[in-house]
Design a protein that fits this description.
- By secondary structure, the chain is α/β, with parallel strands linked by helices.
- It is built from ten helices and nine strands.
- The chain has one domain: TIM Barrel (Alpha-Beta Barrel), CATH 3.20.20.80.
- α7 links the parallel β5 and β6.
Length: about 375
């Protein structure tokens, strides 16, 4: 499961401190430097639910999620295909099989067939650099300590080295295989370095050759985008929500100006519960979902304009569909989050619930996918 709490100490490394219903897929406008998306795969507006590994393997759970999409504005599902447990599909590549892990795998062919019949975009989520399975199989691909031993995080897990080019090729190769199987978009998660907590040993990155962390991530994403665009799909990336408002880079290597130009869509995780009291000038961010998201995503929009990134749906934020602290989140909070996205100039979003359970939020969903954004 992805992080549920953002380590705010990573901020210390900053250099400064169309209103037509659309339920069926439609071709997006091709712009300079962007992919001309396959009309059979990509809806113009993407509003999605996250589906974890275990839900993808349950016919009952998938039937319920598909029914939710059939009856609401939801038109896409983000499916775990490579997570912290390894691959969630049966690869045909013998090299990839070595890194597959031992967890059960979904029947992807049947799953994709069902989604296609319901006009639901299948998005493959791929965890990249937090990969303890690959680290065990390929210890030579791992982050090291100064004494040459394998570096491990607070949970004792090894991370793979973001500078390692064979690792890049493996993850992009997995993405390419999934696209050829029928996925219409690829979403890379854990596009970052592990937090360098002072209580842990120093991290050493073989092969870095003085390349900065933000530049290494940018180079990986540029290579992934180039290769996936050739297959007619978008390459997207998840980032911490704070990246939209903090100048410079976080210590985990994420920097807006480096990441944004190198993906077709960037997905900031602007969960209000992850912002500390007082952040963004908001006393209790978790109690102010609209303010948190409109501030964060408006800033992302502004920064994209300065970069010359003008794609209409280049930013697609993750919305909080879980409760962490007070108040308890439900339909009212989701409605506020959605409005914040639209008021920031975008139409798309993805709901994150770690258990992939969305019942309480259903009253906040519209019946059809209609553009609501301003500007």
């Amino acid at each position: 499961m992805r992080n549920t709490l953002l380590a705010f100490c990573v901020v210390t490394a900053c250099t400064a401190s169309a209103d037509t219903p659309d339920k069926s897929p439609a071709r997006t406008r091709a712009a300079a430097g962007t992919v001309a998306v396959d009309s059979a795969r990509e809806p113009a507006i993407v509003r999605a639910l996250y589906v974890n590994r275990w839900a993808t393997q349950s016919r009952k759970r998938m039937a319920k999620l598909i029914a939710a999409a059939d009856s609401t504005e939801i038109n896409a599902l983000v499916l775990d295909m490579k997570d912290e447990f390894g691959l969630n599909y049966r690869t045909q590549n013998p090299e990839f099989k070595k890194n597959a892990g031992t967890a059960p795998m979904a029947n992807v062919a049947a799953l994709l067939d069902s989604l296609k019949k319901h006009n639901i975009l299948a998005i493959a989520r791929i965890v990249v650099f937090k990969d303890s399975v690959t680290a065990r199989v390929h210890p030579e691909w791992t982050i090291r300590r100064t004494d040459g031993s394998i570096w491990r995080d607070k949970k004792g897990l090894a991370w793979v080295n973001p500078y390692h080019k064979e690792l890049w090729d493996y993850n992009i190769g997995v993405a390419e295989e999934l696209v050829k199987m029928g996925f219409g978009e690829v979403q890379f998660d854990y596009i970052r370095f592990p937090e360098p907590f002072p209580s842990l040993p120093k991290q050493v990155f073989p092969g870095s050759d003085n390349t900065s962390k933000p530049e290494a991530l940018a180079q990986y994403l540029k290579e992934a985008k180039t290769r996936l665009n050739k297959l007619g799909v978008r390459s997207t990336a998840d980032i911490f929500g704070l990246v939209t408002t903090v100048n410079g880079a976080l210590e985990v290597g994420q920097a807006w100006e480096k990441i944004s130009p190198n993906v077709d869509v960037v997905l900031p995780m602007v969960y209000p519960s992850h912002y500390p009291h007082g952040e963004l000038g908001i006393e209790r961010p978790n109690a102010e979902p609209y303010k948190v998201i409109v501030t964060s995503i408006s800033r992302a929009h502004e920064r994209d304009k300065k970069l010359g990134v003008t794609e209409r749906e280049h930013v697609r934020p993750w919305l909080q569909a879980f409760t962490l602290g007070k108040p308890e989140y439900g339909a009212a909070q989701l409605e506020a989050e959605k409005k914040a996205v639209y008021d920031s100039g975008y139409d798309g979003w993805v709901m994150w619930n770690p258990g992939s359970i969305y019942d309480v939020y259903m009253p906040a969903l519209e019946k059809t996918t209609v553009s609501r954004k301003k500007g």
